[in-house]
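Format notes (please read before filing issues)

Several people have asked whether sequences and structure tokens are stored in separate files. They are not. Every record keeps both together, in the order shown below: the sequence lines, then the token lines. Line labels are part of the format and must not be stripped during preprocessing.
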Amino acid sequence: MKNDKKRPPIYEGDGDRLMADLQGADRIILLPDARPSKTPDRSPKMRIMWGQLLLEDLLAGRYRTLVCAVNGDDNRRGIITQLATLLPTSQWDEKSITSHAKAVAGSSGKVHVLKYDLDAVEVLGVGRPAGSDHLTMADLSEAFKIVAQMLERRPDRLPTASVSFLGARSNALRDENGREPSFEAVLHTMYEAGFCGDVYPAPSMWESNTPVYARYPFPPALEAMRQGGF
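Then the structure lines:
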């Protein structure tokens, strides 16, 4: 039966009508993944921060820890360098960030998780293996297992936010076929490794009319649709 109950307006004045007229605008369509309940689901979930600006949220003090990528060659375009520049009490800059990543990685072929204390924010930097020009999904899995352990042992590092590792230039993420993986594959890898912080999609992913969910794991309905049912 159709619910004819009129919803409350979202905007003041003619805002609802005017927003509805923006048919050609890039938009994100958020889908609820569950109905409100008196007994909330307590299973671990990752929040997906669609439309939110990570740098602004970090500078506003919403997170104590950031997970992002670093490398031992060039971090000028990395969010860690942008953050270090904007935080007045940070003792790090692009040169020292890169030198630290290079020293820790050495000649090892393993992924590393490096700690950078930027005073207001601690950064856990996923450093790609020496000699590699990108991160693999296996690298991401191993790194987030370490990150999950570091967060579990230090509750003072919560709340935590992570980049999506997609759309990166210096620290590209590739799957076993050499292509950039899906956002769902990245979320699955993080979650299976034990991470349950907030994840910020790449801003380029905001320009989509594909309906999306604001939490991971996604609801069973998605898999049912993939199997041909609903």
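For reference, the curators noted about this record: Residues 43-217 form a domain with the Leucine Aminopeptidase, subunit E; domain 1 fold (CATH 3.40.220.10). The mean pLDDT is 90.
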